[in-house]
Design brief:
Blueprint: E1 18-20, E2 29-34, H1 47-50, E3 66-73, H2 74-138, H3 152-206, E4 208-210, H4 214-229, E5 233-238, E6 243-245, H5 246-267, H6 271-276, E7 283-292, E8 295-302, H7 309-318, H8 330-334, H9 359-367, E9 371-377, E10 381-389, E11 394-402, E12 405-410, E13 416-421, H10 422-430, E14 435-438, E15 441-447, H11 448-452, E16 466-474, E17 477-483, E18 485-493, E19 507-512, E20 518-522, H12 524-530, H13 533-536, H14 549-556, E21 569-573, H15 577-589, E22 593-597, H16 600-609, E23 614-617, H17 626-635, E24 644-648, H18 653-661, E25 666-669, H19 674-685
Parallel strand pairs: 1-3, 5-7, 12-20, 15-17, 21-22, 21-23, 23-24, 24-25
Antiparallel strand pairs: 2-3, 4-6, 7-8, 8-10, 9-10, 11-12, 11-18, 13-16, 14-15, 16-17, 19-20
């Protein structure tokens, strides 16, 4: 017989899911790949067997093993991850509702206990009255043949009392049943939480790519830069077997390329210089990748000349960034290289950024929620360390309250939390350094209110026995940021605010809480840097604030009076609940006290008891419209001078003329900008 046509050594190979970049509108392409089995010819079409001559033995065909490969657009994967995050938000809302229900059950238990005590007290009082009545009966001949309990009055009372005791017991049983249901719901939610976590992790796994995808591109960048600069460079990679989020990979590639070019251009010496210094003629750069908890770490080390801190100092003094006599540590001087446009090079290179400094790298890394640190040894080389979140979709954050508002602080941006007594805090603040020592490290104390310029005149915060401090490390500086309340940590889904808010430093995005509240996510390290952290924390003035002159001018132009307008009250009269709430929040945020009324009748009743400084008035309302309210106000001797701004979607000339005839000071059409309304209020009130 001839040679066999079947190669039994070939096996079906698994085919992984392949993610293709594309628009969200791309569909899902599913193709089946048939692999040869032990009983099929390798690469031989199936029709070969069907065409064999009759009577000739045929090879039995085994079931075909198939592996499916699904091509899904990256946008579709991102959408699935976002939907999983939305599921987490919905679950959090349910958890919040169950917690509220549990608190209601606790209150119910307290009420039942109080009711049981009252029933027991009633029982004692009843027994005392029966005993007293028995004594009266025994001393009288009128009811000799009756026991006190046989009288209708006491018999009926006893029945009612017994029914009350039974109802109390039934109520307690209902509470126990509801409590069991709550515990069951909590258990089910915990299971659902685990399933949701597994789902998110599985979806994120599909978006992971290996570190070694960076290698070819970075090698090409290094090769091109070395050729242009006529330098010999050896680029090494360590631990490229790990994975990272594809979105993180796409955003971190640019900073890595810039840092690599910068290291080759400014860090590594040319071959002759290295030979003269006793170094190998080939400069070495090593990139090490790793993962710590929920962060990706990237370490870039070169064996070049290092950073000349004295040159950094001179350039900083010449640019007016620091004072000439500033006593700064080497670590603080190294941070200056991350300032916009800062460079110690005398010439603009076409290789390492074309005059663009490392501030671009830092900004891009910070946009990812990461940090960059640097250390250098003159003559031996420089080391950069980058830390970025493992994924950009879901993160854990510390929830806090300050100035009556709720904020989220990503855990990867803070070093820890600590609580001290108010007397201890005041003692720290009274010291010249204003520093708190924790874990053998000094933390400069500052307040979150000063960082974010909270403008509320009054805080809803009830002081606690201890002050809460959030510990933050910004490269080589450490700060203890005082907040009103710590609410614990939880998982959040980060939502981008879009390009409109990109210019706001320290704003990472927003998240939606379980109760539907939108919470701002703050990046404290960025806030501390952008506000001139050294000066803010009480430094001696050796280092000037790192803000641009333009930003300082904008801040100086804000009048001090806008921080609070004590005593100024605005009445909002509108039949829309939404309008009343939105307008009230806006006015309270601007420092006004607010009164609200749902129609004209309620507004006139409120005006009998209180006198606002200005009225915002709608036209169409039930019971009494805005025109009637305006006429009544102008006809009142006490209220005739009250300023009125009428706000309505009916902003035609006819309505404006009628409003003016009724004595309205200004007319504002809907929709309007908040700045426009505020400007009109300030103008009308003469502030």
């Amino acid at each position: 017989m001839g040679e066999p046509v079947i190669d039994r050594s070939e096996q079906a190979q698994p085919v992984p899911v392949e993610i293709q970049d594309g628009s969200p509108g791309e569909g899902v392409d599913t193709t089946s790949t048939v692999a040869p089995t032990a009983d099929q010819g390798a690469g031989l079409p199936l029709k070969t067997y069907a065409s064999a001559p009759l009577g000739k033995p045929t090879v039995p065909v085994a079931p075909i093993d198939t592996q499916e490969m699904v091509r899904i657009s990256a946008a579709a994967i991102d959408e699935l991850v976002n939907l999983a995050a939305e599921s987490s938000i919905s679950r959090g809302r349910i958890e919040q509702n169950i917690q509220d229900f549990g608190r209601s059950l606790d209150e119910m238990e307290t009420t039942i206990i109080r009711l049981q005590g009252q029933v027991a007290q009633m029982d004692k009082e009843t027994e005392a009255q029966i005993a007293y009545r028995r004594e009266q009966i025994e001393s009288s001949d009128e009811f000799d043949d009756f026991d006190p309990l046989e009288m209708d009055r006491y018999s009926q009372f006893r029945h009612l009392f017994s029914a009350l005791q039974e109802s109390t017991a039934d109520l307690n049983e209902v509470r126990e049943t509801l409590l069991a249901d709550v515990k069951s719901a909590e258990f089910s939610l915990a299971q659902q939480s685990q399933v949701n976590t597994d789902l998110q992790e599985s979806l994120l796994q599909t978006r992971l790519v290996p570190f070694n995808r960076l290698v070819p591109r970075l090698r090409r960048v290094a090769r091109q830069a070395a050729a242009e600069l006529n330098k010999k460079v050896s680029l090494h990679f360590d631990n490229t077997e790990g994975n990272l989020d594809r979105n993180v990979l796409n955003k971190i590639m640019g900073p890595l390329e810039h840092m690599l070019r910068n290291a080759i251009d400014h860090g590594l010496e040319d071959a002759e210089t290295r030979l003269r210094l006793g170094k190998p003629t080939e400069g070495g750069i090593t990139l090490t990748f790793g993962r710590e908890s929920n962060e990706i770490t990237i370490r870039m080390v070169d064996d070049g000349k290092g950073i000349d801190t004295e040159a950094v100092r001179k350039r900083a003094v010449s640019r007016g960034l620091i004072l000439e006599n500033a006593d700064l540590a080497e670590a603080e001087l190294l941070q200056l290289i991350f300032l916009p446009g800062f460079s110690t090079s005398e010439t603009v290179s076409q290789v390492s950024g074309r005059g663009v400094g490392l501030d671009v790298v830092v900004n891009e890394v910070r946009d990812l929620g990461g940090t960059v640190s640097v250390s250098s040894q003159p003559g031996s080389g420089t080391e950069f360390n980058i830390r970025v979140p493992f994924t950009l979709s879901v993160n854990r954050a510390l929830m806090i309250r300050d100035g009556g508002e709720r904020y989220a602080l990503p855990l990867n941006t803070i070093a820890g939390v600590v609580q001290v007594t108010h007397s201890q805090l005041e003692a720290y603040k009274n010291e010249e350094a204003e520093s708190l020592y924790y874990g053998n490290e000094a933390y400069r104390i500052c307040e979150l209110k000063r960082l974010i310029n909270i403008t509320q005149p009054q805080s809803r915060h009830v002081p606690t026995s201890k002050a809460s401090l959030v510990l933050v490390a910004t490269e080589n500086s450490r700060f203890a940021v005082q907040v009103d309340t710590l609410e614990g940590s939880q998982e959040i889904a980060i939502k981008s605010l879009g390009s409109v808010f990109n210019y706001i430093r320290g704003l990472s995005g927003v998240t939606i809480m379980g109760d539907g509240q939108v919470v701002v996510i703050l990046d404290l390290p960025v806030l501390l840097r952008s506000k001139g952290s050294l000066e803010l924390a009480g430094a001696s003035g050796a280092v000037l604030p790192f803000e641009s002159a333009q930003m300082q001018v904008v801040e100086d132009e804000v009048p001090v009076e806008t921080v609070g307008r004590p005593g100024k009250t605005v009445m909002v009269v509108d039949d829309s609940v939404t309008v009343r709430k939105v307008t009230s929040r806006f006015l309270e945020r601007e420092g006004f006290e607010v009164l609200t009324a749902k129609d004209g009748v309620e507004a006139m009743d409120m005006l009998n008891d209180s006198r606002p400084d200005l009225m915002l008035l709608d036209i169409e309302m039930p019971r009494m419209d805005g025109f009637d309210v305006a006429r009544n106000v102008r006809n009142s001797e006490e209220l005739s001078s009250l300023p009125i701004i009428m706000i309505s979607s009916r902003s035609g000339s006819k309505h404006r003329e009628k409003a003016a005839a009724c004595g309205v000071n200004h007319f504002l059409g809907k929709p309007y900008q908040e700045e426009e309304l505020l400007s009109l209020i300030i103008k009308t009130m003469g502030l």
